[in-house]
Amino acid sequence: MLAGCTPWPTDVAKRYRKQGIWRGETLGTVLRNAARRHGSDIALVHGDRRISYAELDRWTDRLAAGFAAHGVRPDDRIVVQLPNVPEFVAIAFALMRVGAKLVFSLPAHRSTEITHLVELSGASGYVLPETHRGFDHRELARQVQAGTGTLRTLFLLGAKTDGFVSVSELELAAPDPEPFPEPDPADVAFFLLSGGTTALPKLIPRTHDDYVYQSERAAQVCELTNCDTYLAVLPVEFNFAYGCPGVIGTLQSGGTVVLADTPNPVDCFPLIERHRVTVTSMVPSIMQLWLEAAEWTESDLSSLRLVQVGGARMTREFTERIAPTLGCQLQQVFGMAEGLLTFSRPDDPAESVLTTQGRPISDADEVRVVDENGAELPAGGIGELITRGPYTLRGYYRVPEYNARVFTEDGFFRTGDLARLTEDGDLVIEGRIKEMIIRGGDKISAGEVEDHLLALESVAAAAVIGVPDEFLGERICAYLVTHGPRLSLADLKQAVHARGVADYKLPDMVRYVPELPLTPLGKVDKKALAAVAASEQEG
Ligand code: OOB
Q1: What burial letters (b/e) apply to 71-97, b meaning 16+ CB within 10 Å?
Q2: How many distinct helices (H) and strands (E) make up the chain?
Q3: Between the CA of residue 325 and those of 145, 269, 281, what are the distances in Å?
């Protein structure tokens, strides 16, 4: 395994192999095999483009040869920041075939985040679009390249431009390439980003073995077949849309992936009708938009059979509306880029589908709810969820001290989520221990936003909390102590934006206070702040 990553203990790995959980197959082979079985069937749809399995497979080979011709080597880290376009899928498979390790970044990421990802991973390449939603990524790439030491090549999805290798040039490098030697299935295929409980995202190594298994199991639980069409509503670099079962699980099943440009129902509903979409997945804030739009839409949504909703908490009043409004089944999903997935099952009792996040997708997942001392709680007890299993990481990349804190000695990952298990073994997420805000499904680390605020000249102290919001789930509220003038909310947002931060992390509200409340241990008392915010909302 790539240096800096933590492998599973040898005996555990051996057991997973013996049990056939890890099959020793790479993601590149998954596509190869799917192309053998479903060659002329449609793998990907975007706008008017329809790409068959055989085309996708050949395209991937050409791109892989192009990347290699431009110096990409096995083990190189390559940051990939692309919107939901077929190139994303082909480029990701191509880099995996070369044996390079992708670092998935989000389209919304700006200089601070990309610089961090490049520095943390030591990336030698960065794949980017020309512009996306009005933002010029070329400028961002030049800036990051100048400010970091390792970025050799910038790969541009777009026209030939000085300083960039255009992706279309790559395809010409070797029109009929030889296949590459297979990467080791036990090695890292790509890095996902942590939801951000600490200042900036951590890198989560996902191996071929673990991800092939995860997406296949997820597809099995969703009963995906080659008759299914999956609509990728969320950004595909998000684990949920990539492999839960998402893009990878659909391709494993021989189905069709339709890529949506935005999660907006105005864009998505016509796609559902046109392509007879059967399955999709999204976060609750998007589902809320869909539920409202479904009341008046003229699109025919009757092909939908299953919607997966997860990523943030939902009330029962909310989950109740989903199936009747959309005319399909609801599946609740608890998931994390780190691994563990729990799904409600199609034949679960209605009540548990409405009120729980279901059960782990694999019998080999070990899930425990523990108290502050690490003692396991009986069913019904609320404590921290800890887990280990065949697709849950054993360590983040290159952060040994942090790993020592978030993993137990026997390899359980401390999720930072508060949960309980029902008598039937269903998981219910009750809250969070970690300081993370979930705003419309985007995960924001309170600490990261605080750091940006503290960097502003007039800010002496800053505390950021999530406050409940009917529409987004949570909004970002900043409590600030200042010396000198107080910035208006608009100016504050502008000042943080100017630091090169993704816009979804900007504060939605600001409150100026003479001092921050402290706990007896001298830490900022966020519970007290949350209480202040709650009383304000009531008033
Ligand atoms: C998904 O992944 P991440 O890595 O962006 O965020 C993980 C965190 C969890 O630790 C938990 O705090 C929260 O998101 N979460 C939920 C939840 N599902 C995730 N909180 C309450 N209820 C749920 N159902 O968010 C993700 C990855 C794969 C599939 C689905 C979601």
Answers
A1: ebeeebbbbbbbbbbbbbbbbbbbbbb
A2: 18, 27
A3: 48, 13, 16
Question: Which among 392, 391, 446, 441 is positioned nearest to 415, based on CA atoms?
Answer: 392
Give the Å distance between the CA of 510 and the centre of ligand 1: 26
ipTM: 1.00
Report the alpha-carbon distance of residue 127 to residue 469 in Å, rounded.
Answer: 35
Answer for the pair 192, 5: CB distance below 8 angstroms, yes or no: no
Confidence of residue 197 (pLDDT cuts 50, 70, 90): low
Q: Where are the beta strands (DSSP E) in 81-147?
A: 101-104, 125-129, 131-132, 135-136
Rounded to 5, what percent of the chain is helix, strand, coil?
35, 25, 40
Distance 376 CA to ligand 1 centre (A): 22
Q: How far is the CA of 437 from the centre of ligand 1 (A)?
A: 11
Q: Answer whether residue 198 shows pLDDT above 70.
A: no
Q: Give the model confidence (pLDDT) of 346-359 as tens digits.
A: 899 999 999 999 99
Kind and range of the H or E element at 538?
Answer: helix 526-538
Q: pLDDT grade, residue 371 (50/70/90)?
A: very high
Minimum-distance ligand 1 atom for the alpha carbon of 333: 24
Identify the DSSP state of 503: G
- 339-343 vs 359-360, strand pairing mode: antiparallel
Alpha helices, H only, 26-85: 27-38, 53-69
> Helix, strand or coil for residue 427?
strand
Question: In angstroms, what is the span from residue 303 Cα to ligand 1's centroid?
Answer: 27
**Run of H or E residues at 415:** strand 413-421
Q: Where are the alpha helices (DSSP H) in 207-253?
A: 208-221, 239-243, 246-253
Rounded distance between C-alpha atoms, residue 37 and residue 364, angstroms: 29
Residues with a CB atom less than 6 Å from ligand 1: 195, 239-240, 244, 310-313, 333-337, 357, 415, 417, 429, 432, 443
Nearest CA owner, ligand 1 atom 19: 311
pLDDT digits (tens, 9 = 90+) for 394-421: 999 999 999 999 999 999 999 999 999 9
Phi, psi of 482 (to 5 degrees): -120, 155
Q: Is the pTM of this model over 0.95?
A: no
Q: Tokens for 437?
A: 């805000």
Q: What SS3 class is residue 349?
A: coil
Give the pair of three-digit tokens for residue 114: 């990309």
